[in-house]
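Milestone 3.1: sequence recovery, worked example.
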C-alpha cells in the first residue's frame, strides 16, 4: 500500500503515512471482495444445492428397493408353491387325467395367473398337447406299418381274393397251390400303445400257416414275432379256416382255427384251434387243441375248455362249426373256404386218378390295402360261412337242419340256401318240436325223426303245449313259416 500524498510505502494497518503524516485511507473496495467472497463462494455452491432433487431421487430409489425385494420374495414363494404342488400332487393329477381328461384342464384354470404359470412351467401337463402328439405319432406308425405291409404283399405274393384248384397228387396227397400272404391287420395287440402289424402267410403249399408280428421302435419297423404256427395239415374236405384277434381282460389273443368235415374218415368231423397271448410282445401259446369224430360227444367239456382258454365266450362245444362263429365279438382278418366238388366221392379216394381236380380253395380278402379292420367284411364272411355250413351243405339225412335253432335266432342268411326247398324248411320247423319229444301224425315226419338217435317220442301230438317252446324256438318257428308261406 502507498501514501496517496507523497507516494511512500505504507505498512499494512498504518493509519498515517510515516513520511508526510498524511492519514491513510483504507481501501474499502478491496475490503468488499474479501467480505463478498464467502457469498460468492456460497453462490458457487448453489448448484450443489440445486442437485438436492438428485439426492431426493436417490432417496426414492432407496425406498423402491424394499418394494422390489418384496415382489421378488412373492415370486419365489409362488414358484416354491407350484413346485410343491406338482411334487406332492402330481400322481393324483395323472390319475385324474386317466379317469377324466378334461378335469385337469378345468382345475388348472381356477386361477388365471396360476394356470398361465403352470402352462409355462409344466407344458407336459397340457392334455391337448399330449393328445395331439400321440395322434401324430400313431398316424406315422400306421403309415410305416402300411408301407411294410405293401412290401410283404409284393415279396410274399398276395394270395387273397383268388380261387385255387385242389388236386390229388401222385403220392396220394392233396395240392392246394396257395403260397403267400393270406391276411393282415394293424392293431395294438401288445398293449404298449404302439400299433402292430399282424401278417398271416402260407408256406409248403398250404400245409402250414404262420403269423408274423411287426411294430415300430424309434421310428423304424422291427419284427417282434416270426413264424407263429397257426394252422397245420389243412383239411382235404369241405372246411373253413380263420385267423382272428380276441380281446380279453388280460390283453389280446391271436387265434387260428379250422373246422371241417372229413367225409372219408370214419367219424367225419375234424377241427383244431391254436391261440397265443400277445401282452408285451411275449407270444405264448395258451391253446393247442385238435378234435375229431367221437370227440364231439365224448370230450365236449374239454372242447369247451379249449375255447374258453383261448378267451372266447362260449358255453358249449362247436358242432361242425368254428369257435369264432359262437363268439362273434372277435376281429376276423383272415379267412378261407375249401369246397369239394359234390360229384367227388372220398370213399373211393385211392382209386381216383392222380392229378384230378376235386375242389377249389378261396382265400377271402377281409381287410383293405390299409390293413385296418373291416367289420362289415368280416361279418359278411362269417354270415356266409354259417349259411353254407348250416344250410347249403345240409341234406335230409343230417341229424339237424339247424343244430342250434333252439338257442340261436336264425337269420335270413341262414335260411337263404334252403329258402326254395320246401322239404328242408318243413324239417327245420318240425325239429323244434322233435327236440321236446313231440310225436307227429304225418308218417314221413315221424319216420324221419325216428331215424335220429337223439329223438325220443314222449308227448302225443294232441297233448303238446306250444308254450313248451322257448322264446328263441318260437321266433325261429315263425320265421321259417314265413318262408314256407312264400312258396
Amino acid at each position: 500500500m502507498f501514501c496517496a500524498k507523497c507516494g511512500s510505502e505504507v505498512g499494512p494497518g498504518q493509519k498515517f503515512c510515516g513520511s508526510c503524516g498524511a492519514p491513510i485511507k483504507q481501501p474499502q473496495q478491496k475490503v468488499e471482495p474479501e467480505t463478498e467472497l464467502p457469498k460468492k463462494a456460497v453462490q458457487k455452491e448453489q448448484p450443489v444445492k440445486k442437485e438436492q432433487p438428485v439426492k431426493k431421487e436417490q432417496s426414492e430409489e432407496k425406498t423402491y428397493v424394499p418394494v422390489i425385494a418384496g415382489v421378488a420374495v412373492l415370486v419365489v414363494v409362488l414358484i416354491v408353491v407350484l413346485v410343491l404342488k406338482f411334487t406332492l400332487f402330481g400322481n393324483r393329477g395323472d390319475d385324474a387325467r386317466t379317469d377324466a381328461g378334461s378335469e385337469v384342464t378345468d382345475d388348472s384354470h381356477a386361477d388365471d395367473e396360476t394356470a398361465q404359470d403352470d402352462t409355462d412351467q409344466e407344458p407336459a401337463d397340457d392334455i391337448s398337447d399330449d393328445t395331439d402328439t400321440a395322434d401324430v405319432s400313431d398316424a406315422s406308425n400306421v403309415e410305416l406299418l402300411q408301407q411294410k405291409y405293401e412290401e410283404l404283399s409284393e415279396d410274399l405274393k398276395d394270395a387273397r381274393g383268388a380261387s385255387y384248384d385242389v388236386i390229388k397228387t401222385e403220392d396220394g396227397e392233396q395240392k392246394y397251390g396257395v403260397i403267400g400272404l393270406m391276411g393282415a391287420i394293424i392293431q395294438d395287440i401288445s398293449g404298449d400303445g404302439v400299433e402292430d402289424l399282424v401278417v398271416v402267410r402260407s408256406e409248403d403249399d398250404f400245409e402250414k400257416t404262420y403269423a408274423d408280428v411287426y411294430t415300430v421302435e424309434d421310428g423304424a419297423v422291427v419284427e417282434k414275432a416270426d413264424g407263429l404256427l397257426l394252422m397245420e395239415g389243412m383239411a382235404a374236405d369241405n372246411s373253413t379256416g380263420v385267423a382272428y384277434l380276441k380281446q380279453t381282460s388280460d390283453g389280446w389273443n391271436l387265434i387260428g382255427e379250422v373246422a371241417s368235415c372229413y367225409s372219408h374218415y370214419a367219424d367225419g368231423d375234424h377241427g383244431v384251434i391254436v391261440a397265443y397271448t400277445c401282452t408285451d410282445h411275449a407270444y405264448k401259446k395258451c391253446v393247442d387243441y385238435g378234435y375229431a369224430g367221437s370227440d364231439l360227444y365224448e370230450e365236449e367239456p374239454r372242447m369247451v375248455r379249449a375255447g374258453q382258454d383261448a378267451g372266447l365266450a362260449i358255453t358249449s362245444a362247436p358242432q361242425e362249426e368254428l369257435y369264432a362263429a359262437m363268439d362273434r365279438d372277435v376281429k376276423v382278418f383272415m379267412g378261407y373256404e375249401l369246397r369239394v366238388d359234390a360229384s367227388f366221392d372220398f370213399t373211393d379216394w385211392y382209386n381216383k386218378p392222380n392229378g384230378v381236380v376235386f375242389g377249389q380253395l378261396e382265400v377271402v380278402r377281409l381287410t383293405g390295402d390299409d390293413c385296418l379292420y373291416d367289420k362289415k367284411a368280416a361279418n359278411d364272411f362269417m354270415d356266409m360261412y354259417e349259411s353254407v355250413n348250416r344250410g347249403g351243405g345240409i341234406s335230409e339225412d343230417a341229424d339237424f337242419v339247424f343244430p342250434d335253432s333252439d338257442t340261436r335266432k336264425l337269420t335270413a342268411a341262414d335260411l337263404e340256401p334252403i329258402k326254395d326247398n320246401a322239404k328242408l324248411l318243413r324239417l327245420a320247423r318240425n325239429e323244434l318240436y322233435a327236440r321236446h319229444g313231440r310225436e307227429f301224425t304225418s308218417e314221413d315226419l315221424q319216420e324221419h325223426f325216428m331215424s335220429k338217435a337223439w329223438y325220443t317220442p314222449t308227448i302225443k301230438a294232441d297233448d303238446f303245449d306250444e308254450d313248451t317252446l322257448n322264446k328263441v324256438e318260437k321266433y325261429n318257428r315263425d320265421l321259417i313259416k314265413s318262408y314256407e308261406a312264400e312258396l
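Residues 160-393 form one domain. Residues 29-62, 91-136 have pLDDT under 50 and may be disordered.
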